[in-house]
Write a structure and sequence with these properties.
The chain is mostly beta strands. It has no helices and six strands. The strands form two sheets. The protein has a four-stranded antiparallel β-sheet with strand order 3-2-1-6, with no helix packed on it. The protein has a two-stranded antiparallel ribbon with strand order 4-5. It starts with a strand and ends in a 41-residue tail after the last strand.
């Protein structure tokens, strides 16, 4: 799926919390906007490392209550086709949704998705729940 990239000018901090209620933040360079079944959704990524040329999304969808990990899943994408500072397109491959480390061990703490990354739709693809 191709999403529209809408850059922030200037960049902003994206704030969210982890499961232990610690505040986390990262560089917010823009948002991606996509349409599914006639509805438009927006997700905020975090730029973890400007040298890595990838965006990091922490998100949750309605499958989190049933078949996928409850806290969140991660999605990494490449940069948009015209760079981070210009409008453009960005490929979303939800098949690449992955479980965070805390899905596998009680010794890791999960970041929780910011409110705008909690989708009211199911994404029944990508990694599924590891255990009950």
């Amino acid at each position: 799926m191709t999403a529209r990239w809408i850059p922030y000018a200037p960049q902003k901090d994206v704030h969210h919390r982890d499961a232990d209620r610690h505040e986390l933040s990262g560089a917010g360079t823009g948002l991606r906007e996509f349409t599914l079944h006639g509805k438009t959704y927006r997700l905020d990524p975090i730029l973890e490392d400007p040298e890595a040329a990838k965006l990091f999304f922490v998100l949750r969808d309605t499958t989190s209550a049933t078949t996928t990990y409850g806290a969140c899943r991660f999605l990494y994408t490449g940069f948009p086709d015209h760079g981070l500072d210009k409008p453009g397109d960005l490929v979303l491959d939800f098949n690449r949704l992955e479980n965070p480390p805390c899905a596998y061990t009680p010794y890791a703490t999960c970041p929780l998705p910011p409110p705008q990354n909690r989708l009211p739709i199911p994404l029944p693809v990508g990694e599924q729940r590891y255990h009950e």
